[in-house]
């Protein structure tokens, strides 16, 4: 259960962040930015999620350097993020273990968890981007024109005037995507990450108590989904 909650929380945060950025980019006055955002959305929405998870796991994370002297770790964002085929580390320090350089300390993600979270977040962000785009189009164009007349740039008008109104509009469909991401985490079975469904499958195969195992999993997913729905309803009421 803890693993599934971890995937849901990190995945929802990343998907929302990327989705808002890409959704705003879809309506950018810059032609190239708009087309790149469109290509991102169409490529991700029109390929199966399980295939994307396999891509992130087998084609990306397992092909990363192993941390040896001939294949040193990848360091991103000024060394904040460390990537090897053993996983992803945020923060921490590089230390040598068994002839390989690896991150110690910080927040560690196994390659299975990293592939699952990134795959789910990227896939879901494409749908969120279209929701955000629709929300922006639902706001009167005159508001952006008024913002520009007051001397605000396009980005400032979007951030200060348009997006706060958009979030009130898009909470229901946004909630659906958050729920989909949480339920899609069950596809972790395909890449060997131990979340709810994987655990239930193991228990079922070892104890032959399939009814009990999968009933518990069903109720756990239901409870998690209801908690997410409840949290979004509270946010919606607070935003008015």
TrEMBL record:
It comes from the Bacteria. Gene3D superfamilies: MetI-like. The keyword Cell inner membrane does not apply. It is found in: Cell membrane. It is a multi-pass membrane protein. Its main location: membrane. Residues 1-232 form the ABC transmembrane type-1 domain. The chain crosses the membrane at residues 47-64, 76-95, 115-139, 160-179, 213-235. Keywords: Amino-acid transport, Cell membrane, Membrane, Transmembrane, Transmembrane helix, Transport. One of its GO terms (cellular component) is ATP-binding cassette (ABC) transporter complex. One of its GO terms (molecular function) is transmembrane transporter activity. One of its GO terms (biological process) is amino acid transport. It holds the Pfam family BPD_transp_1. InterPro entries: AA_ABC_transptr_permease_3TM (IPR010065), ArtM/GltK/GlnP/TcyL/YhdX-like (IPR043429), MetI-like (IPR000515), MetI-like_sf (IPR035906). Belongs to the binding-protein-dependent transport system permease family. HisMQ subfamily. This is ABC transporter permease subunit. The lineage of its organism: Bacteria, Bacillati, Candidatus Sysuimicrobiota, Candidatus Sysuimicrobiia, Candidatus Sysuimicrobiales.
